[in-house]
Design brief:
The protein is an alpha+beta fold. The chain has helices spanning 13-23, 31-52, 75-89, 125-128, 223-233, 250-260, 279-292, 323-334, and strands at 93-98, 105-106, 112-123, 134-142, 163-169, 173-178, 184-189, 194-199, 210-212, 243-244, 263-266, 296-298, 318-321. The chain has an eight-stranded mixed sheet, sandwiched between helices. A five-stranded mixed sheet has the order 10-9-11-13-12, with helices on both faces. The longest helix has 22 residues, at 31-52. It catalyses: beta-D-fructose 1,6-bisphosphate + H2O = beta-D-fructose 6-phosphate + phosphate.
Length: 337
């Protein structure tokens, strides 16, 4: 009969990354695979907490006490703790930068490894209490040769990252990852507790039909952005206008952009001089994934991955997505230069 048999040869994230590392031969020590195993574990742990948040009173403000008198932690604080603990214990990290922590964490010698991880443990905070998609964003650097792991190991352009990705907590839990060799998407099989390769070799369409901006900020936008948005909303020469989609969770908006194409933007404007999104653990990882998927990621004035950070929490304007769409926007910027 035509009945499809279930596959007996599933490709888990660990298997897939290991296979890619094998191809690199001698350079690969398996350390990155182990680091990614730790990151997968944190994503699974955060995913279960996100799912049961309403039931165990994790939403809302931190500082409430539960019946046992223990402090209830907000989901984003909890997610941060989960990541710091797991990444430290992996023995593979030297420096950690989290959106939730003012200072970088320098890992003590006992646990020190050669990777630095920059992350936003739970991005999209305004969406948490409404049950809308949220996610974890991460980027990985390797410490410079001879370095013991200092802040300068993460104040480097995004182009020097060795891996980047995000996990989206939505109707399913999806981990999207690049180790510098294309982009792959994995879906958590909750019964197995494994991320299974479901979206191999993601490529962004060269042009899309969707734009994703917080247009509520329009009165603050600079001219190039205003003119660009008008050009796609009121097209000339018989083209159709673009559709608007804006979730307000970067992970969800970027995920859709990677799969469907189009443009996602969070510009700098008259109110927010550098935009809103953080360079190290929001803009860089998403720009890295976008480029690896064949798209373009720009500040409007240049390539995001070329920006050299001076501060771990600095902000950066972000435009990313389909090659043709982002290049259209860049042309509007060039008119004003
Ligand atoms: P957060 O780190 O406080 O969650 O803010 C980051 C989020 C991004 O996920 C999203 O792209 C953006 O903020 C949305 O901002 P706004 O509500 O201004 O549109
Ligand atoms: Mg954030």
């Amino acid at each position: 009969s035509n009945e499809e048999l279930p596959s007996t040869d599933i490709i888990t994230l660990t298997r897939h990354v290991l296979a890619q590392q094998f191809q690199l031969g001698a350079i690969a020590t398996g350390d990155l695979t182990l680091l990614l195993t730790a990151i997968q574990t944190t994503s699974k742990f955060i995913a279960t907490n996100v799912r049961k948040a309403r039931l165990i009173n994790l939403v809302g403000l931190a500082g409430n006490s539960n019946v046992q008198g223990e402090e209830q932690k907000k989901l984003d604080v909890l997610s941060n703790d989960i990541m710091v603990n797991s990444l430290r214990a992996s023995g593979k990290t030297a420096v950690l930068v989290s959106e939730e922590l003012e200072e970088a964490v320098i890992i003590e010698d006992k646990f020190k490894g050669k990777y630095c991880v920059v992350f936003d443990p739970l991005d999209g905070s305004s969406n948490i209490d409404a049950g809308v998609n949220i996610g974890t964003i991460f980027g990985v650097y390797q410490i410079a040769p001879g370095s013991k792991g200092t802040i300068s190991d993460v104040l480097r352009p995004g182009s020097e990252m060795v891996a980047a990705g995000y996990t989206m907590y939505g109707s399913s839990c999806n981990l999207v990852l690049s180790t510098g060799n294309g982009v792959n998407g994995y879906t958590l099989d909750t019964a197995l507790g494994e991320f299974i390769l479901t979206h191999p070799d993601i490529k962004i369409p060269s042009r899309g039909k969707i734009y994703s901006f917080n247009e509520g900020n329009s009165m603050y936008f600079h001219k190039p952005v205003v003119n660009y948005l008008n050009s796609i909303k009121y097209p000339t020469t018989g083209k159709l206008p673009y559709s608007a989609r804006y979730i307000g969770s970067m992970v969800a908006d970027v995920h859709r952009t990677l799969l469907y194409g189009g443009i996602f933007g969070y510009p700098d404007d008259k109110k927010s001089k550098s935009g809103k999104l953080r360079l190290l653990y929001e803009a860089f990882p998403m720009a890295y994934l976008t480029e690896q998927a064949g798209g373009v990621a720009s500040t409007g004035h240049g390539r995001i991955l070329d920006v050299v950070p001076t501060n771990i929490h600095q902000r950066c304007p972000v435009f990313l997505g389909s090659r043709d769409d982002v290049n259209d926007l860049i042309r509007f910027y060039e008119e004003y230069e």
